[in-house]
Amino acid sequence: MENNFGKLGANQIEALQKAQPIVDAILKAQDDGDYDTFCSYFEGALKQNITKDDFHKNQQNIENSMGKVIKTHFVTSLKRAGLVGLVYKCKFSKSDDDFMVTITFNDNSDPLMATGIWIS
C-alpha cells in the first residue's frame, strides 16, 4: 500500500517531522481535557462543530472507558476528501485493546492545521 503524505513531505520521516508534534499536542490536550488547546490545532470548523460541553463529555467517556494515551505508533497515511490522514495504533491506560486514531490535515494550510480526529 502506498503512503500519501501530500505536501507534508516526500516520505514518512519528512511528514512526521511536521505533523507529529501536532498529533502529540492534540492527544495530550484530549487527555488533559483542555478544550482551548485542543481546538487551537484545528481549522476553525472543528470549534464550530464541537462545543466545549461536547468535548468534555467525549473526553470523560474516553477517560472512563479507555484512559489516557500511553503509546502511539504510526501505521499509515491515507487520502481522504482532499486531505492527508495519518493513522496511528494507540494504547490507552485502562484498556488492553488496541485503538486506531486517525487525524486529518489540510496540507495546504500555513501554519499546518488538523481538520478532524477519529478514534475507533
Helix and strand layout, with pairings?
Blueprint lengths: L11 H21 L2 H6 L3 H6 L2 H14 L3 E12 L2 E10 L5 E9 L6 E7 L1
Antiparallel strand pairs: 1-2, 2-3, 3-4
Q: What would you call the shape?
A: globular
* Structure annotation, total helices: 4
DSSP strand content: 25-35%
Number of domains: 1
From the N-terminal CA to the C-terminal CA, the straight-line distance is 21 Å
Order of helices and strands: HHHHEEEE
The helix fraction, in percent, is: 25-40%
The side-by-side strand order for the widest beta sheet comes to 1-2-3-4
Parts with pLDDT < 50 across at least 5 consecutive residues: none
Specify the structural class. alpha+beta
CATH domain class name? Alpha Beta
Mean pLDDT score:
94
Major sheet size, sense and barrel closure: 4 strands, antiparallel
CATH topology value: Nuclear Transport Factor 2, Chain: A
Q: Which second-level CATH architecture applies?
A: Roll
The number of strands is 4
Radius of gyration: 14 Å
Describe this structure in words.
Helices cover 39% and strands 32% of the residues. The protein has 120 residues and is an alpha+beta fold. It has one domain: Nuclear Transport Factor 2, Chain: A (Roll), CATH 3.10.450. The chain has a four-stranded antiparallel β-sheet. A hairpin with a 6-residue loop joins strand 3 and strand 4. The mean pLDDT is 94.
